[in-house]
Write a structure and sequence with these properties.
The complex is a heterodimer of chains A (about 425) and B (about 260).
Chain A lengths: L31 H8 L4 E5 L5 E2 L14 E5 L3 E10 L5 H4 L4 E8 L4 E6 L8 E8 L5 E7 L10 H4 L9 E4 L5 H12 L4 E6 L9 H6 L3 E5 L5 H11 L5 E4 L16 H27 L10 E7 L10 H21 L5 E7 L17 H14 L3 E4 L1 H12 L1 H9 L6
Parallel strand pairs in A: 6-8, 9-10, 9-12, 10-11, 12-13, 13-14, 14-15
Antiparallel strand pairs in A: 1-2, 1-3, 4-5, 4-7, 5-6, 7-8
Chain B lengths: L5 H11 L2 E5 L24 E9 L2 E10 L7 E3 L24 E8 L1 H6 L4 E2 L1 H11 L7 E5 L8 H4 L1 E2 L2 E2 L3 E2 L1 H10 L4 E4 L17 H8 L3 E4 L12 E4 L10 E3 L3 E5 L4
Parallel strand pairs in B: 5-7, 6-10, 7-11, 11-12
Antiparallel strand pairs in B: 1-15, 2-3, 4-12, 4-14, 5-13, 8-9, 13-15
The chains are: A alpha/beta (about 425), B alpha/beta (about 260).
């Protein structure tokens, strides 16, 4: 069994913070599809459309029948460890710093034998459950887990290197005024976060749930208004070095298309929160988090953006809000580029209509704030970067992957709620 | 010095310190409360600043910023066209109001004890008349300020917002009518976030200070501070708003000239 992770000691102020080093990151263009699946928490390999042969590593043609019709498909995650070794030396700085490190060969039930990282609780010749996740380089890798849950399984350091587990980490939730923010804080506390900084804008306005929020263990209420650059910078100066996980729960949502808007005042408010707010947070907290990607067991590890699925394609019923969310999605992609190589993951959750006041007239199915909070915790503990939540979002993402231009036509045709 | 020249006398008093300048203005601070309307209405923009440069690569030797806010953010002036009742009046925007309105005598009605006892305190005609029995009838063309010491409150205590709305003092419609129609004041000011009481939506007419003052071409001042440093009568108010084309109001610096030798 895995030794339970101990609460990290207070940082020695005389010691330099380790710079992030990286596992190998070179991948072929074909193999990026594996990384995408890993970012979504899926275990996918190439399957030949003609002979059904599963192949690994990524190839241009099927090694069995020479067909070029190789498709990335989710495949069964079962397998068996057939050989293993423990690395005690390496020329790669990332692994050198983390010795010893287990790797092994797994015979997949789906066919191929693969080289993978091995969880500490997997014994020789045992059955395993494979996961694919992005590593500190942001590239997809495989890890063999014990087939059944073991004590303290999540604390395994090779697994923890692939996840953003909130246990013993410190988090910033940017807006605690809403039910979503408050559910998020509670979920983080339940997941073992030691300190949860909760941004509250405009304390001169009372808000529902404030007493219960303040009573959650580890919560520290902080003044934060992401529409105010000074406020964001002041908070970063105060606790930015303790933001291991940042979850941006602030959103500004209003129904209405462009012609239903009278002027640009509301649209500016949308941009101030959804776009410029995110930008202010990135400028204030990004550099510190990027520098702390290898800072021990409570390193900076995740930046979580909660985005409406209509950030992918405009839904005119919430037309200008969709546009601001599209801007936020684009900025999150820029952030992913800026965090590349830091070991800090950008987790984007694309959700369907949320059960909250500004989306009140929309019909079910909706995503409850609790579900969204639980989903974020799941993504963190699993190390998943791209999440789609709720039937509406799943449908939109499926259609987006099929053809974004067809989706655009569908969302903008007559009787789409306008 | 020729004491017959009023301005020369004033200049002498200002430099000698017998007349002092009192600042009645709150600092424009991003976190200073603004009026909160039901969420489906447009909202009052908060005060915000963004740096353009600060002795850095954006401008090596200079520091300057852009600021944004509403015409009704912070200590601010209300022009008659702010309200529908004043929308068709002539010279009713901040850029067209005759400048003499911005330098006028001021009367300060002390309601601080009453407001401490009752956060929904309403200033009535009877209260004004009783004040006049001590301090004299309010002179025509004066500003009248309602002192509540509300500016000493901070945080949630300032708007005093509850589930049924804000609870802050203000005038009744009849009090505003008395000031406008009989005393012929030029404007009315408060320490609270608006010239009206927190619960003024439930008065008749709703928001009587806004409706009646601006309908009669009078002006408003709100979010004032330091009214406790003013005498009941005898001070001069200086309150020029920014000259915004067709502006409904403006943040501004409000000053009062107070003769200390008369105190």
């Amino acid at each position: 069994m895995t030794d339970a992770l101990k609460r990290p000691p207070k940082k020695d102020p005389q010691k330099r913070t380790n710079s992030p080093t990286l596992p190998p990151y070179a991948r072929s263009r074909k193999a990026i599809a594996f990384t995408l699946a890993a970012a979504e928490g899926r275990f996918a390999l190439q399957v030949c459309a003609e002979c059904e042969h599963v192949t690994y590593p990524a190839r241009e043609v099927c090694p069995k029948c020479w067909s070029m019709e190789l498709e990335w498909r989710d495949i069964p995650d079962g397998g068996k460890l057939i050989s293993e070794t423990t690395l005690r030396t390496s020329v790669n700085s990332y692994f050198r710093e983390r010795m010893p490190w287990r790797i092994g060969t797994i015979q997949l039930d789906a066919g191929p034998t693969v080289l993978a990282h091995i969880h500490g609780d997997v014994g020789e010749f045992e059955r395993v459950r494979m996961i694919a996740r992005t590593d500190k380089s942001g590239q997809g890798v495989m890890l063999a887990l014990p087939e059944k849950e073991t004590p303290n399984m999540a604390d395994d350091r090779q697994l923890r290197a692939l996840t953003c587990n909130p246990k013993y980490r410190r988090a910033l939730v940017t807006d605690g005024r809403t039910e979503l923010g408050q559910r998020m804080v509670k979920a983080l506390a339940d997941a073992g976060a030691t300190r949860i900084f909760v941004g509250i804008a405009e304390k001169w306005r009372p808000y529902e749930g404030s007493e219960a929020l303040e009573a959650i263990p580890g919560v520290e209420i902080m003044p934060l208004d992401i529409t105010d650059t000074i406020s964001v910078n002041e908070l970063a100066a105060e606790m930015g070095d303790k933001a291991d996980i940042l979850i941006n729960t602030a959103e500004y949502v209003r129904p209405g298309s462009v012609m239903q808007r009278h002027g640009v005042t509301l649209a500016r408010d949308e941009m101030e929160t959804n776009y410029f707010g995110l930008m202010r947070l990135i400028q204030a907290f990004g550099p510190g988090m990027k520098a702390r990607g290898a800072d021990g067991d409570n390193s900076a590890c995740a930046w979580v953006n909660l985005l409406s699925v209509y950030s992918l394609s405009n839904w005119p019923v919430y037309g200008t809000t969709s546009a601001s969310q599209a801007a936020a999605l684009s900025l999150s992609q820029c952030l992913r580029g800026e965090f590349a190589g830091s070991g800090v993951k950008v987790i984007n959750v694309l959700f369907g209509p949320l059960e909250e006041s500004w989306r009140q007239p929309l019909p079910p199915p909706k995503v409850t704030p609790q579900r969204l909070a639980d989903t974020v915790i799941h993504a963190l503990t699993q190390g998943i970067e791209n999440v789609t939540l709720g039937p509406v979002a799943e449908d939109v993402v499926r259609r987006y992957k099929e053809d974004p231009f067809v989706l655009e036509r569908e969302l903008t045709q007559i009787n789409q709620g306008m | 010095m020729n004491e017959t020249n009023a301005l020369q006398a004033l200049a002498g008093a200002l430099t000698s310190g017998s007349i002092v300048t009192v600042d009645l203005t709150h600092t424009l601070d991003p976190d200073f409360p603004v009026i909160v309307l039901p969420p489906e209405f447009g909202q009052c923009a908060r005060f915000r600043v963004e740096e353009v440069s600060r002795y850095d690569e954006r401008g090596p030797a200079w520091y300057w910023r852009n600021f944004t806010c509403s015409e009704h953010t912070g200590t601010h002036f209300d022009a008659p066209i702010h309200w529908i009742s004043g929308k068709d009046l002539p010279d009713a925007a901040v850029d067209s109001i005759p400048a003499d309105a911005f330098v006028r005598p001021v009367c300060v009605i002390d309601c601080s004890q009453e407001s401490a006892d009752d956060e929904d305190f309403l200033l009535t005609p009877e209260f004004i008349v009783a004040w006049e029995q001590t301090h004299g009838v309010i002179p025509e063309g004066s500003w009248v300020l309602m002192r509540t010491d509300w500016s000493k409150r901070s945080g949630a205590e300032y708007l005093n917002m509850r589930d049924d709305g804000a609870h802050t003092p203000g005038p009744t419609g009849d009090a505003v009518k008395l000031l406008v129609e009989e005393r012929k004041i030029i404007g009315f000011g408060t320490e609270t976030v608006g010239t009206d009481a927190g619960q003024a939506t439930h008065l008749s007419p709703p928001y009587p200070a806004h409706y009646l003052l601006h309908g009669a071409g009078k002006y408003g001042l709100q979010c004032l501070a330091n009214l406790d440093e003013l005498p009941p009568t005898g001070a001069i108010l200086v309150c020029p708003p920014l000259k915004i084309k067709n502006g409904s109001g403006s943040p501004l610096r409000v000053l009062a000239l107070v003769d200390r030798s008369a105190a």
